[in-house]
Design goal:
Number of helices: 10
Number of strands: 8
Largest sheet: 8 strands, mixed
Distance between the termini: 27 Å
Helix content: 40-55%
CATH class: Alpha Beta
CATH architecture: 3-Layer(aba) Sandwich
Shape: globular
Length: 262
């Protein structure tokens, strides 16, 4: 792991392999460790991933963690590491940030992979729920986020047969900063509906969704596929909201097929 100063704080990142760059944006409330299984792709491309502010080894920021902030940090990282235009892979919160990136930094984008995510904004009820949870996390710590999110993050198959994935998720979430979790929750709650902007995306796009995903199920993935011209949709069996962690072989096969076009 390495760190790089961006906007007055240290951002932790990992950089492995050579060739065309693929930049990964992690889900909430996780870290770059969720993409450990994708380092297997490094022989054919350059795998770069980083911790959003307040998560993993990155410092906490001085304001709520908006999707635009994550996108801007990604753009700075691309420029500092001289990655050139990248294929951007975003899961859940990372997917929201990837959509913001596509709008703000299109010249740095050569391909887009949207994983277990959606274009729509939170409902008023969901926004209130995030605010309530943010207050609870600040009072009780990261355990409150673990209790709230873990049951929904993975599919029933993972719950029944992948204890190692569950253990890793618990470790990642419990190591997150309560302030970072709170900042992320507020940022998620304020994001705008990106659906009208989907037609502006012109780079090759792949949408991936777990068949057991209850947070952003297939209908949400289909909205992305229909909204982005030429986008393809791959459904991953026996996987929930975190396909890259739950079924890394199937996820990597789908991603490798997409990357072979570049």
């Amino acid at each position: 792991m390495k760190t790089i100063p961006i906007g007055g704080i240290d951002i932790q990142y990992a950089d492995k392999g050579t060739g065309p760059a693929v930049l990964f944006l992690h889900a909430f409330p996780l870290s770059l460790r969720m993409w450990d299984g994708q380092e297997a792709l490094a022989p054919r491309c350059r795998i770069v991933r980083f911790d959003a502010r307040g998560f993993g080894g990155s410092d906490v920021g001085d304001a709520m963690l908006t999707m635009a902030r994550i996108a801007d940090d990604a753009a700075v990282l691309i420029e500092r590491l001289r990655l050139g235009p990248v294929v951007l892979v975003g899961c859940s919160m990372g997917g929201y940030a990837a959509l913001s990136f596509a709008q703000k930094h299109a010249s740095l984008l050569r391909g887009l992979v949207l994983v277990d995510t959606r274009a729509g904004a939170d409902s008023p009820e969901a926004r209130k729920g995030r605010g309530d949870l943010a207050a609870k996390v600040m009072k009780e710590g990261a355990q409150a986020a673990l209790d709230a999110f873990l049951p929904k993050l993975v599919g029933e198959t993972t719950k029944a047969s992948r204890a190692d994935v569950i253990a890793k998720l618990k470790d990642i979430i419990l190591k997150a900063s309560p302030q970072g979790i709170s900042d992320g929750l507020h940022g998620l709650a304020t994001r705008q509906d990106a659906t009208p902007l989907l037609r502006e995306i012109t780079v090759p796009t792949l949408v991936i969704c777990g068949e057991e995903d209850v947070i952003t199920p297939r209908p949400e993935a289909e909205i992305l596929q229909r909204g982005i011209k030429g986008a393809e949709l791959v459904m991953i069996p026996r996987s929930g909201h975190l396909t890259a962690m739950e079924t890394p072989d199937a996820f990597n096969e789908a991603l490798a097929g997409f990357l072979s076009r570049f």
